[in-house]
Amino acid sequence: GQTNLKSPQDIQVYVINTNFTLRWKYTGNDTNVTFSAEYRWFEDFNVGGTEWKELPGCQDVTHKECDFSSAITEYYDEYHLRVRTERREEVSPWSSIFEMTPYDIAQIGPPGIELQSIDGVIKIKVSPPEANRVRKMWIDDLSFKYSLVIWENSSNAKFRNQSIFPTDIIDDLAPDTTYCLKVQATYPLESKEGLFSPIHCVKTTRKAVNVLFCATNVSIFALNMKFHLHWNNQYKQYVSYNVQYLRGYLKKLYDDYSVKWLNVPGCENITETQCNFSSIITTVSGTFYLRVQAMNEYNKSCLSNEVKVVPLVTNEIGPPGVKLDIGDDVLLHIQIYPPGGSESEVMRDHYDLSYRILYWDNSSNNEEEIQMKEIKQTIGTISDLTPSTLYCVKVQAFSIVYNKSSGFSKEECIQTPGDKILPLIILATFVTALVAVLLVAAPLVFILYQVYNKIKYVFFPSCQPPLNIEGFGGQLFNSPYRSTAEEPIENCSIIETIITEDLNQIDFKDTKHSKQSSRDSGNYSNDDDTSGSKASEETLEKEII
């Protein structure tokens, strides 16, 4: 039972597409040895697995590898493998067990390529890694993407990498130059990269003479899901154009798509250098290719370069609409209308738009006073506004998902209403001041009125003194400084009882004299008046004595 044969070591399995190769190392010095392998299959995740079986293609082999592709039929199940050394009847212990799930360790094989050099470009046709194979590791050939590496066949070669379709054209090449290239297939769903194809080399030809009537500088202008194609025309004679489009998925197929281009409705046989092709954008998840076919007066045609359209990526977002209103709650209400108007549901449903609101006091020229607010809804409110102030607002739409933003909308301004409390305060202040003035002025007016009455009563009585007091006082206090012209006054007669009869007579005479004097008209001299006064005084003095 003992043996000197060593067991194989470092067991490895290499899987390329559905080709399986088992490799190992042997460190023994023995000669004339062979190797045999066994496997067991854990079908449908069977924990115990099946019994060990001889591995087809790996029995009594003399090399340190074998191909066992025919033995593996299920690529998602688990397999165990082991190897031993044999010499006649003598065998070594089994090696360590190698465990594998074929799909997990499989590599993508190199794709097949066909090249054609024509008119200064290289046409390439790529076939999938398992083309024409019945059993396939990679079920969906359409999931493959292809990467090209191309370089000039020279000592100072510069490598150029680009993605290509199964049928594609490689342009921007120097004429009469040998180029070498290789292609790699990748499987994005599983993040797998395949092996490069063998290197192929081909020499380019010279490009045909540039046709003047060809459309050049073909470009796309797209705003709010309205798509326009523009191009330039260098030809001075008559030329007409047909705008053609191709759905992107056709380029992913391995068939020839050159006959599947279609004319854009409304852009056939036109002479303008622009075309509205919005009608063909029937889905936002697809890809479209466009080109312009020019036709001169001799019915010769020329095709422009192709341009690619990915609707949601190519399209640009326009500014939204804005309407302002100030409600009874003294809040600024901002109604936002999504870009494209009410009919553009694509803009709202697919871009997941947000809105950036800028607002400021229009009386301020300081940019730092501009405030910003971001919202998801189409209705926003702004509080903490200053009464009787003009506020201006502009809004920008943006999409975080597509990293796009629109220009700002046109500025809209609105005046906030005045403060309702201020008029009440002014009215209350006025009423309070009025009441205070009345409370202070009324007593003052009353006091002034009383003082006025007293002064008037004392210095300007409303009634003259009695007649006897008037005459007596007139002679006694007559003064040359008083005015000689006096207005006539009402004469009053007061009869009083005088004890002395002689005095009554004197009084009576004086009274007559006074009346006589009063009846004299107008002006009289001061000398007459003075002499009369002196005579009266002398008469009165004699009578008293």
Automatic annotation (TrEMBL):
<feature type="domain" description="Fibronectin type-III">
    <location>
        <begin position="7"/>
        <end position="105"/>
    </location>
</feature>
<dbReference type="InterPro" id="IPR015373">
    <property type="entry name" value="Interferon/interleukin_rcp_dom"/>
</dbReference>
<dbReference type="InterPro" id="IPR003961">
    <property type="entry name" value="FN3_dom"/>
</dbReference>
<dbReference type="InterPro" id="IPR036116">
    <property type="entry name" value="FN3_sf"/>
</dbReference>
<feature type="transmembrane region" description="Helical">
    <location>
        <begin position="421"/>
        <end position="449"/>
    </location>
</feature>
<keyword id="KW-0472">Membrane</keyword>
<dbReference type="Pfam" id="PF01108">
    <property type="entry name" value="Tissue_fac"/>
</dbReference>
<keyword id="KW-1133">Transmembrane helix</keyword>
<feature type="domain" description="Fibronectin type-III">
    <location>
        <begin position="318"/>
        <end position="419"/>
    </location>
</feature>
<feature type="compositionally biased region" description="Basic and acidic residues">
    <location>
        <begin position="535"/>
        <end position="545"/>
    </location>
</feature>
<dbReference type="GO" id="GO:0005886">
    <property type="term" value="C:plasma membrane"/>
</dbReference>
<dbReference type="GO" id="GO:0004905">
    <property type="term" value="F:type I interferon receptor activity"/>
</dbReference>
<dbReference type="Pfam" id="PF09294">
    <property type="entry name" value="Interfer-bind"/>
</dbReference>
<protein>
    <submittedName>
        <fullName>INAR1 protein</fullName>
    </submittedName>
</protein>
<feature type="region of interest" description="Disordered">
    <location>
        <begin position="510"/>
        <end position="545"/>
    </location>
</feature>
<dbReference type="InterPro" id="IPR013783">
    <property type="entry name" value="Ig-like_fold"/>
</dbReference>
<keyword id="KW-0812">Transmembrane</keyword>
<dbReference type="InterPro" id="IPR050650">
    <property type="entry name" value="Type-II_Cytokine-TF_Rcpt"/>
</dbReference>
